[in-house]
Amino acid sequence: VLLVESGGGLVQAGGSLRLSCAASGIIGSASTMGWYRQAPGKQRDLVALIDGNGRTTYADYVEGRFIISRPNTAATHLQMDSSTTEDTAVYFCLYRPSSGNSVYWGQGTQVTVSS
User: Fold this and answer.
1) Residue 59 burial (10 A CB sphere; 0-12, 13-18, 19+)
2) Cα first-last separation, the chain
3) pLDDT band for position 100 (50/70/90)?
4) What DSSP string describes 29-80?
């Protein structure tokens, strides 16, 4: 499975950004896709997940500001609104099959929120 992110960049605090992730390879309809982020010097943290039934999970610090969607089995978007400087990080797309312990990651896309 290959994941390619796009849509990162620079945005002012309070602004919006939309990240996209396209998956290629053998993609299962019951799989989970999502986003993690990693700020400099910090661990990689959960942002949001969406499973094959459209059920979503959000980290507390993005709940109500970010929305994850999955237009088809092999793609996911992350709409980031009301951004803050704390959202500055490299955002990584995740793909997790419905069975087994494999996890696939994209190369990451930088998001920088300026004050």
Assistant:
1) middle
2) 37
3) confident
4) TT-EEEEEEE-TTS-EEEEEEE-TT--EEE-TTTTTTEEEEEEETTEEEEEE
Q: Which helix (DSSP H) or strand (DSSP E) does residue 93 occupy?
A: strand 89-96
Structure tokens at 92: 């990584």
Q: Which residues are 94's β-sheet partners? A: 34, 105
Region at 102 (left for phi over 0; alpha for psi -120 to 50; beta for the rest): beta
Q: Residue 3 CB: number of other CB atoms within 10 A?
A: 22
| Three-class secondary structure of residue 11 per DSSP | strand
pLDDT in tens, 39-97: 999 999 999 999 999 999 999 999 999 999 999 999 999 999 999 999 999 999 999 99
What number of CA atoms fall less than 13 Å from residue 39's CA on the CB side?
A: 10
Residue 86 backbone phi and psi in degrees, to 5: -70, -15
